[in-house]
Design brief:
By secondary structure, the protein is of the alpha/beta class. 28% of the residues lie in helices and 17% in strands.
Protein backbone atom coordinates (compact mmCIF):
# COMPACT_ATOMS: atom_id res chain seq x y z
CA UNK A 1 0.00 0.00 0.00
CA UNK A 2 2.79 2.37 0.96
CA UNK A 3 4.53 1.86 -2.38
CA UNK A 4 1.28 2.60 -4.26
CA UNK A 5 0.72 5.78 -2.25
CA UNK A 6 4.29 6.91 -2.88
CA UNK A 7 3.87 6.19 -6.60
CA UNK A 8 0.68 8.27 -6.69
CA UNK A 9 2.43 11.09 -4.84
CA UNK A 10 5.27 11.00 -7.35
CA UNK A 11 2.81 11.21 -10.24
CA UNK A 12 1.05 14.10 -8.51
CA UNK A 13 4.35 15.96 -7.99
CA UNK A 14 5.30 15.49 -11.62
CA UNK A 15 1.94 16.90 -12.62
CA UNK A 16 2.40 19.92 -10.35
CA UNK A 17 5.89 20.62 -11.68
CA UNK A 18 4.66 20.27 -15.26
CA UNK A 19 1.69 22.56 -14.61
CA UNK A 20 3.93 25.11 -12.94
CA UNK A 21 6.33 25.01 -15.88
CA UNK A 22 3.42 25.61 -18.25
CA UNK A 23 2.31 28.59 -16.19
CA UNK A 24 5.81 30.02 -16.02
CA UNK A 25 6.09 29.71 -19.76
CA UNK A 26 2.94 31.80 -20.06
CA UNK A 27 4.00 34.38 -17.48
CA UNK A 28 7.61 34.99 -18.41
CA UNK A 29 6.62 38.67 -18.30
CA UNK A 30 6.68 38.55 -14.50
CA UNK A 31 10.48 38.63 -14.35
CA UNK A 32 11.14 40.25 -17.73
CA UNK A 33 14.39 38.37 -17.99
CA UNK A 34 16.59 37.89 -21.02
CA UNK A 35 18.40 34.61 -21.54
CA UNK A 36 21.33 35.94 -19.51
CA UNK A 37 19.10 36.56 -16.48
CA UNK A 38 18.91 40.34 -16.88
CA UNK A 39 15.61 41.94 -15.90
CA UNK A 40 14.95 44.69 -18.44
CA UNK A 41 12.41 46.49 -16.26
CA UNK A 42 14.58 46.97 -13.16
CA UNK A 43 17.12 49.74 -13.36
CA UNK A 44 17.44 53.52 -13.38
CA UNK A 45 17.56 56.48 -15.72
CA UNK A 46 21.05 57.66 -16.69
CA UNK A 47 21.80 61.15 -18.02
CA UNK A 48 24.04 61.26 -21.08
CA UNK A 49 24.72 64.43 -23.07
CA UNK A 50 25.36 62.35 -26.18
CA UNK A 51 21.89 60.77 -26.07
CA UNK A 52 19.59 62.06 -28.80
CA UNK A 53 16.18 60.89 -30.02
CA UNK A 54 15.97 58.97 -33.28
CA UNK A 55 13.53 61.51 -34.77
CA UNK A 56 12.08 64.99 -34.22
CA UNK A 57 8.93 66.98 -34.96
CA UNK A 58 9.44 66.46 -38.69
CA UNK A 59 8.09 62.90 -38.31
CA UNK A 60 4.85 62.91 -40.32
CA UNK A 61 2.96 60.67 -37.89
CA UNK A 62 3.16 62.59 -34.57
CA UNK A 63 -0.17 63.69 -33.07
CA UNK A 64 0.05 67.31 -32.04
CA UNK A 65 -0.97 66.62 -28.45
CA UNK A 66 2.38 64.82 -27.89
CA UNK A 67 4.62 67.12 -29.95
CA UNK A 68 6.07 69.07 -27.02
CA UNK A 69 8.98 70.59 -28.96
CA UNK A 70 6.74 71.96 -31.70
CA UNK A 71 4.43 73.54 -29.15
CA UNK A 72 7.08 75.36 -27.19
CA UNK A 73 8.64 73.19 -24.51
CA UNK A 74 11.87 75.13 -23.90
CA UNK A 75 13.95 72.48 -22.13
CA UNK A 76 15.33 69.40 -23.85
CA UNK A 77 17.02 67.74 -20.90
CA UNK A 78 14.26 65.13 -20.69
CA UNK A 79 15.52 63.77 -24.03
CA UNK A 80 18.98 63.03 -22.61
CA UNK A 81 18.03 60.19 -20.29
CA UNK A 82 18.49 56.52 -21.19
CA UNK A 83 17.06 53.51 -19.39
CA UNK A 84 19.80 51.34 -17.87
CA UNK A 85 18.75 47.90 -16.55
CA UNK A 86 20.59 46.83 -13.40
CA UNK A 87 22.70 44.01 -14.80
CA UNK A 88 22.88 44.41 -18.58
CA UNK A 89 22.55 46.85 -21.44
CA UNK A 90 19.23 47.41 -23.15
CA UNK A 91 19.68 46.36 -26.79
CA UNK A 92 19.86 49.29 -29.21
CA UNK A 93 16.74 49.78 -31.29
CA UNK A 94 17.42 48.81 -34.90
CA UNK A 95 14.50 49.93 -37.02
CA UNK A 96 15.70 48.28 -40.23
CA UNK A 97 16.15 44.98 -38.40
CA UNK A 98 12.65 45.36 -36.95
CA UNK A 99 11.18 45.89 -40.43
CA UNK A 100 13.10 42.95 -41.87
CA UNK A 101 12.04 40.62 -39.06
CA UNK A 102 8.39 41.57 -39.52
CA UNK A 103 8.40 41.79 -43.30
CA UNK A 104 4.93 41.15 -44.71
CA UNK A 105 3.39 41.16 -41.20
CA UNK A 106 0.61 43.08 -39.47
CA UNK A 107 1.06 44.61 -36.01
CA UNK A 108 -1.77 46.23 -34.08
CA UNK A 109 -1.87 48.42 -30.98
CA UNK A 110 -5.26 48.16 -29.25
CA UNK A 111 -6.18 50.60 -26.52
CA UNK A 112 -6.60 54.22 -25.51
CA UNK A 113 -4.49 57.36 -25.99
CA UNK A 114 -1.50 55.70 -24.26
CA UNK A 115 -1.58 53.14 -27.07
CA UNK A 116 -1.69 56.11 -29.47
CA UNK A 117 1.34 57.49 -27.62
CA UNK A 118 3.33 54.28 -28.18
CA UNK A 119 2.06 53.79 -31.75
CA UNK A 120 3.12 57.34 -32.67
CA UNK A 121 6.55 56.63 -31.24
CA UNK A 122 7.09 53.29 -32.98
CA UNK A 123 6.09 54.45 -36.47
CA UNK A 124 8.35 57.49 -36.08
CA UNK A 125 11.27 55.29 -34.96
CA UNK A 126 10.74 53.01 -37.96
CA UNK A 127 10.41 55.94 -40.36
CA UNK A 128 13.67 57.38 -39.01
CA UNK A 129 15.39 54.07 -39.78
CA UNK A 130 14.24 54.21 -43.42
CA UNK A 131 13.56 57.91 -44.10
CA UNK A 132 13.48 57.54 -47.88
CA UNK A 133 11.28 54.45 -47.85
CA UNK A 134 7.78 54.48 -49.30
CA UNK A 135 4.88 54.53 -46.87
CA UNK A 136 1.12 55.03 -46.72
CA UNK A 137 -0.58 56.71 -43.76
CA UNK A 138 -4.26 56.65 -42.78
CA UNK A 139 -5.48 58.39 -39.62
CA UNK A 140 -9.11 57.58 -38.82
CA UNK A 141 -11.24 56.27 -35.97
CA UNK A 142 -11.27 53.57 -34.78
CA UNK A 143 -8.51 52.23 -37.07
CA UNK A 144 -5.40 54.10 -38.17
CA UNK A 145 -2.31 52.62 -39.79
CA UNK A 146 1.08 53.20 -41.34
CA UNK A 147 2.36 50.77 -43.98
CA UNK A 148 6.07 50.66 -44.73
CA UNK A 149 5.62 49.61 -48.32
CA UNK A 150 9.16 48.45 -49.07
CA UNK A 151 8.80 45.84 -46.32
CA UNK A 152 5.06 45.18 -46.41
CA UNK A 153 4.84 45.92 -42.68
CA UNK A 154 1.66 47.58 -41.43
CA UNK A 155 1.42 49.06 -37.94
CA UNK A 156 -2.23 49.51 -36.95
CA UNK A 157 -3.83 51.44 -34.11
CA UNK A 158 -7.29 50.29 -33.02
CA UNK A 159 -8.77 52.81 -30.58
CA UNK A 160 -10.62 51.09 -27.74
CA UNK A 161 -10.74 52.92 -24.44
CA UNK A 162 -11.99 49.97 -22.41
CA UNK A 163 -11.21 46.90 -24.58
CA UNK A 164 -14.74 45.72 -23.81
CA UNK A 165 -17.71 47.07 -25.80
CA UNK A 166 -19.64 50.29 -25.40
CA UNK A 167 -23.01 49.73 -27.12
CA UNK A 168 -25.63 52.36 -27.98
CA UNK A 169 -29.06 51.21 -26.78
CA UNK A 170 -32.39 53.06 -26.42
CA UNK A 171 -31.58 53.81 -22.77
CA UNK A 172 -28.14 55.23 -23.66
CA UNK A 173 -24.55 54.09 -24.03
CA UNK A 174 -23.87 50.87 -22.13
CA UNK A 175 -20.39 49.74 -21.09
CA UNK A 176 -20.66 45.94 -21.30
CA UNK A 177 -18.02 44.37 -19.08
CA UNK A 178 -18.54 40.87 -20.46
CA UNK A 179 -18.66 41.64 -24.21
CA UNK A 180 -15.89 42.06 -26.81
CA UNK A 181 -17.60 42.05 -30.18
CA UNK A 182 -15.01 44.55 -31.40
CA UNK A 183 -12.42 41.79 -31.00
CA UNK A 184 -13.32 40.58 -34.49
CA UNK A 185 -11.22 43.46 -35.80
CA UNK A 186 -8.16 42.17 -33.95
CA UNK A 187 -8.10 38.75 -35.57
CA UNK A 188 -5.52 37.99 -38.22
CA UNK A 189 -2.74 40.08 -36.70
CA UNK A 190 0.81 38.79 -36.30
CA UNK A 191 1.38 40.88 -33.17
CA UNK A 192 -1.06 42.54 -30.77
CA UNK A 193 -0.13 45.10 -28.09
CA UNK A 194 -3.04 45.80 -25.73
CA UNK A 195 -3.59 48.55 -23.20
CA UNK A 196 -6.36 49.96 -21.04
CA UNK A 197 -6.73 51.83 -17.76
CA UNK A 198 -6.55 55.58 -18.44
CA UNK A 199 -10.30 55.97 -19.04
CA UNK A 200 -11.46 53.83 -16.13
CA UNK A 201 -11.01 56.70 -13.68
CA UNK A 202 -12.95 59.22 -15.82
CA UNK A 203 -16.27 60.27 -14.28
CA UNK A 204 -19.28 62.02 -15.73
CA UNK A 205 -21.19 60.87 -18.82
CA UNK A 206 -19.27 63.10 -21.24
CA UNK A 207 -15.80 62.31 -19.91
CA UNK A 208 -16.30 58.57 -19.50
CA UNK A 209 -18.17 57.97 -22.77
CA UNK A 210 -20.95 55.77 -21.33
CA UNK A 211 -24.20 56.15 -19.37
CA UNK A 212 -24.66 52.68 -17.85
CA UNK A 213 -22.46 49.72 -17.01
CA UNK A 214 -23.62 46.13 -17.48
CA UNK A 215 -22.28 42.80 -16.26
CA UNK A 216 -24.40 39.76 -17.02
CA UNK A 217 -28.04 40.80 -16.63
CA UNK A 218 -27.27 43.55 -14.10
CA UNK A 219 -27.31 47.14 -15.38
CA UNK A 220 -26.36 50.04 -13.08
CA UNK A 221 -25.51 53.71 -13.48
CA UNK A 222 -22.04 53.16 -12.04
CA UNK A 223 -19.96 50.77 -9.99
CA UNK A 224 -16.59 50.59 -8.29
CA UNK A 225 -14.10 51.32 -11.07
CA UNK A 226 -11.45 48.92 -9.83
CA UNK A 227 -14.01 46.12 -9.77
CA UNK A 228 -15.25 47.10 -13.23
CA UNK A 229 -11.70 47.18 -14.61
CA UNK A 230 -10.99 43.74 -13.16
CA UNK A 231 -14.14 42.25 -14.70
CA UNK A 232 -13.42 43.81 -18.09
CA UNK A 233 -9.81 42.66 -18.11
CA UNK A 234 -10.93 39.16 -17.19
CA UNK A 235 -13.29 39.26 -20.19
CA UNK A 236 -10.37 40.36 -22.37
CA UNK A 237 -8.34 37.45 -20.98
CA UNK A 238 -11.11 35.08 -22.01
CA UNK A 239 -10.96 36.54 -25.52
CA UNK A 240 -7.19 35.89 -25.63
CA UNK A 241 -7.63 32.30 -24.48
CA UNK A 242 -10.32 31.66 -27.06
CA UNK A 243 -8.93 33.51 -30.09
CA UNK A 244 -5.13 33.58 -29.96
CA UNK A 245 -2.98 30.96 -31.66
CA UNK A 246 0.49 31.51 -30.13
CA UNK A 247 2.18 29.95 -33.16
CA UNK A 248 0.74 32.73 -35.32
CA UNK A 249 0.31 35.76 -33.06
CA UNK A 250 2.52 37.30 -30.38
CA UNK A 251 0.55 39.12 -27.68
CA UNK A 252 1.80 41.90 -25.41
CA UNK A 253 0.12 43.95 -22.70
CA UNK A 254 1.53 47.44 -22.49
CA UNK A 255 1.36 47.71 -18.73
CA UNK A 256 -0.10 50.58 -16.70
CA UNK A 257 1.18 54.04 -17.58
CA UNK A 258 1.37 56.24 -14.44
CA UNK A 259 0.37 59.88 -13.95
CA UNK A 260 2.14 62.68 -12.06
CA UNK A 261 -0.56 65.07 -10.86
CA UNK A 262 0.20 64.66 -7.15
CA UNK A 263 3.56 66.22 -6.38
CA UNK A 264 3.45 65.06 -2.77
CA UNK A 265 4.19 61.57 -4.09
CA UNK A 266 7.78 62.65 -4.76
CA UNK A 267 8.09 65.43 -2.19
CA UNK A 268 6.91 68.40 -4.24
CA UNK A 269 4.15 70.93 -3.59
CA UNK A 270 3.22 70.97 -7.26
CA UNK A 271 2.70 68.53 -10.15
CA UNK A 272 4.58 67.56 -13.30
CA UNK A 273 4.74 71.14 -14.59
CA UNK A 274 8.30 72.42 -14.65
CA UNK A 275 9.88 69.07 -13.78
CA UNK A 276 13.13 68.59 -15.72
CA UNK A 277 14.69 65.49 -14.14
CA UNK A 278 13.57 61.95 -13.36
CA UNK A 279 13.45 60.66 -9.81
CA UNK A 280 16.91 59.45 -8.80
CA UNK A 281 17.46 55.77 -8.21
CA UNK A 282 15.38 52.76 -9.05
CA UNK A 283 12.31 53.16 -6.81
CA UNK A 284 9.38 55.53 -6.92
CA UNK A 285 8.49 56.85 -3.44
CA UNK A 286 4.90 55.56 -3.70
CA UNK A 287 3.45 52.16 -4.55
CA UNK A 288 2.54 50.96 -8.02
CA UNK A 289 -1.05 51.63 -9.18
CA UNK A 290 -3.51 48.95 -8.05
CA UNK A 291 -4.42 48.48 -11.71
CA UNK A 292 -0.93 47.03 -12.28
CA UNK A 293 -1.66 44.32 -9.70
CA UNK A 294 -4.93 43.49 -11.44
CA UNK A 295 -3.13 43.18 -14.77
CA UNK A 296 -0.61 40.77 -13.26
CA UNK A 297 -3.38 38.70 -11.67
CA UNK A 298 -5.34 38.40 -14.92
CA UNK A 299 -2.27 37.57 -17.00
CA UNK A 300 -1.21 34.93 -14.48
CA UNK A 301 -4.46 33.09 -15.04
CA UNK A 302 -4.28 32.96 -18.85
CA UNK A 303 -3.76 29.72 -20.75
CA UNK A 304 -2.12 31.54 -23.67
CA UNK A 305 1.25 33.34 -23.42
CA UNK A 306 1.09 37.11 -23.04
CA UNK A 307 4.22 39.19 -22.46
CA UNK A 308 3.80 42.06 -20.04
CA UNK A 309 5.70 45.09 -21.25
CA UNK A 310 6.08 46.20 -17.65
CA UNK A 311 6.63 49.92 -18.15
CA UNK A 312 4.93 51.02 -14.91
CA UNK A 313 7.84 51.39 -12.47
CA UNK A 314 10.33 52.84 -14.93
CA UNK A 315 7.70 55.33 -16.13
CA UNK A 316 6.81 56.34 -12.56
CA UNK A 317 10.34 57.73 -12.31
CA UNK A 318 9.76 60.05 -15.30
CA UNK A 319 7.84 62.94 -13.73
CA UNK A 320 9.73 65.17 -16.19
CA UNK A 321 8.52 63.61 -19.44
CA UNK A 322 4.88 64.78 -19.76
CA UNK A 323 3.51 67.37 -22.22
CA UNK A 324 2.25 69.55 -19.33
CA UNK A 325 1.03 72.75 -21.04
CA UNK A 326 2.95 72.19 -24.29
CA UNK A 327 0.03 70.61 -26.10
CA UNK A 328 -2.77 72.21 -28.15
CA UNK A 329 -5.53 69.83 -27.04
CA UNK A 330 -5.54 70.04 -23.25
CA UNK A 331 -7.13 72.98 -21.46
CA UNK A 332 -5.23 72.14 -18.27
CA UNK A 333 -1.97 70.38 -17.58
CA UNK A 334 -1.34 67.00 -19.14
CA UNK A 335 0.53 64.84 -16.64
CA UNK A 336 -0.92 61.61 -18.08
CA UNK A 337 0.52 61.34 -21.58
CA UNK A 338 4.13 61.62 -22.71
CA UNK A 339 6.12 63.87 -25.01
CA UNK A 340 7.19 62.41 -28.34
CA UNK A 341 10.02 61.98 -28.91
CA UNK A 342 10.46 60.88 -25.32
CA UNK A 343 9.60 58.10 -22.91
CA UNK A 344 7.47 55.96 -25.29
CA UNK A 345 10.62 55.49 -27.39
CA UNK A 346 12.03 53.50 -24.46
CA UNK A 347 8.82 51.44 -24.30
CA UNK A 348 9.40 50.51 -27.94
CA UNK A 349 13.05 49.80 -27.30
CA UNK A 350 11.88 47.33 -24.65
CA UNK A 351 9.36 45.88 -27.09
CA UNK A 352 12.15 45.37 -29.62
CA UNK A 353 14.34 43.72 -26.98
CA UNK A 354 11.53 41.27 -26.21
CA UNK A 355 11.31 40.33 -29.89
CA UNK A 356 14.94 39.71 -30.80
Amino acid sequence: MGIKIQALLNIFLVFIVYAKAELLQNISYFNGELANGCNLFRGEWVYNTSTNPLYDSSCPFIDSEFDCLKFGRPDKQYLKYSWKPDSCNLPRFDGVDFLRRWKGKKIMFVGDSLSLNQWNSLVCMLHAADPKGRYSFVRKSPVSYVTFQDYGVTIFLYTSHYLVDVVREPKGRVLKLDSIQQGNAWNGMDMLIFNTWHWWSHTGAEAQGWDYVQYGSTIVKDMNRIEAFSKALTTWGGWVNQNINPSKTKVFFQGISPTHYQGEEWGSKYNCMGEQQPINGARYPQHRPIAADIVSKVLFGLRKPVYLLDITSLSQLRKDAHPTKYSPYHSGLDCSHWCIPGLPDTWNQLLYAALI
